[in-house]
Write a structure and sequence with these properties.
This protein is α/β, with parallel strands linked by helices and 345 residues long. The protein contains 14 helices and twelve strands. It has three domains: 8-54, lambda repressor-like DNA-binding domains (434 Repressor (Amino-terminal Domain), Orthogonal Bundle); 67-165 and 298-330, Rossmann fold (3-Layer(aba) Sandwich); 167-296 and 334-340, 3-Layer(aba) Sandwich (Rossmann fold), CATH 3.40.50.2300. Helix content is 46%, strand content 17%. Helix 5 packs across helix 13 and helix 8 (167-180) runs parallel beside helix 9.
């Protein structure tokens, strides 16, 4: 038999006091309402005895706040997004908020359903790593007063607060490093969610190979749920392009799939191919040889996004309307390891 949920009314009845008094105490208004410390202690003791759990959504209807935030990412199991989520959850907890997570798998219909869920739950705000096709839906949320922070990606035609890294500069530095080490046939295997010409990491690559007078070798791949599909794709790329001497992978999961593809083909790193991956991963650090990466500042990304959201949550409606939407762009860091040793002549 299901256990009956304890209510504020039950606590008030047990103590023979008004439920309004119980509500004031549980909402931290005891001093403001001049409720004695003795009664506060008595109520809190009874709350613990009965195992009372407040209904966050009912509280939200009364106060306009649920103290719940939404976090939407591409794939919560991906180490990059998992690390972001951990940092955001910790900072949220320190500020008395809880987090509701969801993964879009870069599916815009799935993303729309989760945006609807956020609205239905009445979250106080959300941090979103958007996929393509979400512009209008996010705009509607913002227009209705929802506090939204975008991270990792941005939309050109929408005004949101955005936290991202300098993807163009990050990939440019990777190409520069390979050129300095003697590599000339440099390829980019990149995730493309929209059009390749709009992807910042592809733009950074194009700028670099153009500046260094090199041929461009770009291999755009769509998002796929099964990483084994990427392994097969990358094996085909390598089998058809034996002139390549180095590859930059635009995400850590493409980099990991690339390592498996290279191993399956019996190629050696860096003797046959030098490798750089965008995003660090524990595997890249312990792999032999270990892998050079363009690392993103996960803690800084997470804390900046949370700080921006907390700032919005603390603003009144007038301040929100008058405040400018801003984009914060953080720097990446090239971590040089053994996979990009100087090319042998």
């Amino acid at each position: 038999m299901a256990k009956t949920k304890i209510s504020i009314n039950d606590i008030a009845t047990k103590l023979n006091i008004s439920k309004t008094t119980v509500s004031f105490i549980l909402n931290g208004k005891a001093k403001e309402k001049r409720i004695s410390d003795k009664l506060v202690a008595k109520v809190l003791k009874k709350v613990e005895e009965l195992g009372y759990q407040p209904n966050q959504f009912a509280k939200g209807l009364r106060t306009g706040r649920t103290n719940i935030l939404g976090l939407m990412v591409e794939d919560i199991s991906n180490p990059f997004f998992a690390s972001i989520a951990k940092e955001i959850e910790e900072k949220a907890y320190q500020n008395k908020y809880k987090i509701v997570y969801c993964s879009t798998e870069n599916d815009k219909e799935r993303a729309k359903e989760f945006l609807t869920m956020f609205s239905t739950l009445g979250v106080d705000g959300c941090i979103i790593s958007p996929t393509m096709g979400m512009e209008e839906h996010i705009k509607k949320m913002v227009d209705t007063g929802m506090n939204v922070i975008l991270f990792d990606r941005k939309f050109e035609n929408t005004s949101n607060n955005v936290v991202k890294v300098n993807n163009i500069e990050g990939v440019y530095s990777a190409v520069t490093h390979l050129v300095d080490r003697g590599y000339k046939q440099i390829a980019l295997v990149a995730l493309t969610l929209d059009s390749p010409e709009k992807e910042e990491r592809i733009i950074g690559y194009k700028n670099a190979v153009s500046d260094y007078g090199l041929d461009a070798h770009i291999f755009p791949l769509p998002f796929k749920n099964d990483y084994l599909d990427y392994v097969e794709d990358i094996m085909k790329i390598l089998e058809k392009n034996k002139n390549l001497d180095s590859i930059i992978f635009s995400t850590n999961y493409l980099g990991i799939s690339g390592l498996e593809a290279i191993n399956n083909l019996g190629l050696k790193i860096p003797d046959d191919l030098a490798i750089i991956s965008f995003d660090d991963h524990d595997l890249f650090r312990i792999h032999k040889p270990n892998i050079t990466v363009v690392s993103q500042p996960i803690k800084q990304l997470s804390h900046t996004a949370m700080d921006m959201l907390l700032e919005r949550l603390q603003c009144n409606n007038k301040d929100k309307e008058e405040s400018e939407h801003k984009t914060v762009t953080l720097c990446t860091n090239l971590i040089v390891r053994e996979s990009t040793e100087y090319k042998k002549k």
